[in-house]
Structure formats: structure tokens, C-alpha cells
Amino acid sequence: MRSKLIRIAKILQVFTEYTRDGWLFLRYNGFSPLEPRDRRLSHKTIIEAHTIEKGLALPEPRPYFGQNKVRALLEMNAGWVPPPGDISRTMLLGALRDYRAAFVDTSPPDAALAAQVDTFLDTQETETAEGGVRGYIEKKSECDASAVAFLNARFSARDFAPRTLEDREIATVVHLAQRAPSQCNRQSTRLHVYRDRARIARLLELQGGGRGFIQAVPTLFVITSEITAWGGPQQRNQPYVDGGIFTTMLLLSLDAHGFVSCPMNLAITHSKEQAIKREGTIPKRERLVVMVAAGLPPTYPFRAARSPRWPTDAICTIHDHE
Ligand SMILES: Cc1cc2nc3c(=O)[nH]c(=O)nc-3n(C[C@H](O)[C@H](O)[C@H](O)COP(=O)(O)O)c2cc1C
């Protein structure tokens, strides 16, 4: 009887958790009027400027494609000064610079809009702008055996040397992880890093999956996604997609720099999520994705779970063999 009641309670809790998911998304998504204008404009500009970059990277870009997007971008950015460090403007300037250059020999369908682009570009620094397209890449198709060996060698560690990662090391590791792809380059992923042992212990007690090695974790990353980067019903799950991809790059980057790590699930209820956010001083507009414990490998030989994998053909169906 008791186990039946527990099962019913668990099913009912699914509804309350989904309702709270929905509320968080509604409150903080990019269409919410309650979100600060700077954040909304920055995310929107990055997403739309990237559609220009993508268009320019096609085999044969249609001359003056996306005129409505260009118009909207100019309108959105007219009179708006992004906060310092915001990448949306450099991305927009680079995209429009390369757009203008790509079609310089074709007369524009809307001369007034072309003039607006000129004014926008000519009144700002475009030479060093970082957006746009990378020109004519020559890439050979060849197997890199050392990269294959590196990927094969990653594993989850649950034992670490006591030393924490230094600021400089964190910056280097994160910088490489930022090569992770993200939807429309929106880069919604945020990282919170902790090195205080007592605080790490409190965070991992709330997480619940580190029993037996909590005290060994020298550095803890909490990976989140800023909800404001996402908008509309179809994007409700995307914080986890981009967050997951980023996390893989973070694990690989840690490995590449000589550290070991263990991803740690955040399969938790909203009340746990709130408690972790309070403990970690993480903004409410971020959704928690996963934690990553990290450090140097122990100086003594240590053990790791084997974690065998399914045979490849058990998880991969090549459909033209049907
Ligand atoms: C999203 C995610 C959450 C995980 N959570 C935990 C966790 O809470 N505790 C833990 O000890 N390991 C955790 N792991 C590690 C997995 O057990 C491990 O990745 C898996 O067994 C494969 O082994 P490998 O990482 O050594 O290749 C997690 C892994 C992922 C990807």
C-alpha cells in the first residue's frame, strides 16, 4: 500500500515539476518583457547576426539574401550601446562588413537599406570586428591518430590530488571548452566554479551523487544555461542540449590540460535546484545542467570504473542497409 502511494506521489510530482519548469521558462525566456533589455537585445543580435554569417558560408550565397533580417538588426541596434564586453556588436559589425563585401559587385535591391548599412558600418570600428566569415579554409581529410588516442583515453575519476585548479588554469581550460558549438552561436552556457572545500561539500551533498568522494573534490564546476538566450515554446529543452555539448568539451579540455574530472548529474527537483542556486549564488535566470568535479590526478596509482560500452551496432542504425 505504502509503495503504491509513493508511486502515485511521484507521478503527481511530475506535474508540479513540469509546471515549475514552465514558469521558469516563461519568466526568463528571451521574449519575456520582464527580462532586461540589454540581455534580450544582445542574445537576439547574436542569433540574427549569425544567420548572416551562416548565409555567407553557403557554397553560393544568394546576393543580398535576408534583407528583412538586416533591416531588423539595424533597427534593433540603432541607438543601443551594448554593455562593455558584450560580443553582439563585434559579431554584427563583422557579419555586415562581410555581407557588404560579398555583394559589392551587385547592385542592391534596396538602395536605402544599403545606405543604412554603410552608415552603420562607417561610423564604427569594423576592421577588427570578429564576426563574419573565415576565408578560404583548406582542410585535408586525414585521421589524426593522437587525437583518436586522446579521445579514447578519457574516463571519469573519483579520486584527485588535493591541489585546486588555479585561476589561470581555469581560464585556459574554459577558453578551450568555449570552442563547443552552440545553437546559432548563442553561447547560453554559464560556469560557476568553487574551490572552497566546505562549500563544495555542501553543494555535492545537495547533488547527492558524490557519496564516498565528496571530500576528495578540489574544484567543482556547475554548468548552467541562461534561459534568456532561449525563446518560444520550441526551445524549451535547448538549454540542456547546448549545456550538454559544452560539458563534453569541458571534460575534454580538462583532460587535454592534464586534469581529471567526473561529470555529476543534476537530475533534481526544483526545490533542490533552488537550494543549490542559493548555496552557489547562481542567478535565478539560469537552469542548472550538470556539475563537474575536477582536479589533478592523484600522485599514486588509482582506480576508475571500467564503464563498458554497448557494441556500436547496438546503438547505431545505418538506414540504407534496410
Ligand atoms: C550527465 C552525467 C551525470 C553523471 N553523474 C554522476 C554522478 O552523479 N556521480 C558519479 O560518480 N558519476 C557520474 N557520472 C559519470 C558516469 O558514471 C560515467 O560518465 C559513465 O559511467 C561513463 O564512464 P566514463 O566517464 O569513465 O567513460 C555522470 C555522467 C554524466 C554524463
Concise synopsis of the structure shown:
The chain is built from eleven helices and four strands, in the order H-H-H-H-H-H-H-E-H-E-H-E-H-E-H. The protein has 322 residues and is α+β, with helices and mostly antiparallel strands. The structure holds flavin mononucleotide (FMN).
> Which CATH first-tier class of the largest domain would you pick?
Alpha Beta
Q: How many structurally independent domains?
A: 2
Helix content: 40-55%
Which strand order do you get reading across the main beta sheet?
Answer: 1-2-4-3
What is the overall silhouette? globular
**Which radius of gyration do the C-alpha atoms yield?**
23 Å
Q: How many β-strands, per DSSP?
A: 4
CATH topology of the largest domain: NADH Oxidase
Task: For the record, give the distance between the C-alpha atoms at the N and C termini, rounded to a whole number.
Answer: 48 Å
Q: What average pLDDT do the residues reach?
A: 96
The CATH homologous superfamily name of the largest domain equals NADH Oxidase
Roughly what fraction of the amino acids lie in strands? 5-15%
Count of alpha/pi helices: 11
The CATH architecture of the largest domain: 3-Layer(aba) Sandwich
Which cofactors or ions or other ligands sit in this model?
flavin mononucleotide
Low-confidence stretches: none
SS content category: alpha+beta
